[in-house]
Amino acid sequence: MIQKRAERLICGAMSSEHITPYLTRLHWLPVNQLIKLKLFVFVYLCVTGSSPSYLISDVVPSSTYNTHYLSLWSFSDRIRLHVPKTTLSSGDSGFCVAGPRLWNSLPRSIREALSLVVFKKCLKTYLFA
Q1: CB atoms within 10 A of CB 109
Q2: pLDDT at 28 over 50
Q3: Comparison of pLDDT for 28 and 33, the residue scoring more
Q4: Count of CA atoms in the C-beta half-sphere (13 A) of 129
Q5: 18 vs 108, residue with greater confidence
Q6: What single DSSP character describes residue 81?
Q7: What's the predicted TM-score (pTM) here?
Q8: Is 71 exposed, middle or buried (0-12, 13-18, 19+ CB in 10 A)?
Q9: For position 68, what pLDDT does the model report?
Q10: Which helix (H) or strand (E) holds 24?
């Protein structure tokens, strides 16, 4: 709601006009895409070990699941993450489920980004497409 009002104020759009073309012109992501972007960045920080340990423990590479947890992941371990099974749909929105599920949906080239700056740039390009 606030994003729509800000866009209308900046662009001078009427309240009856659809905001998607204006969001594209301003190079703004819709709120749901912004939430995904933040989640992707949190997962990337976990995968690279740059996040707090309580978050890192929620993100497990699928190749190490059921064997042992590696404190230092190899590069190939960053590719796919284990998505825990949930019994209730409300559990699907938790970080330990939603994060790996979204991460696994990213193209491999983005997941393999070597720095946060490159990751964010590729991710924004992907989300705007």
Answers
A1: 9
A2: yes
A3: 33
A4: 8
A5: 108
A6: B
A7: 0.73
A8: exposed
A9: 47
A10: helix 20-26
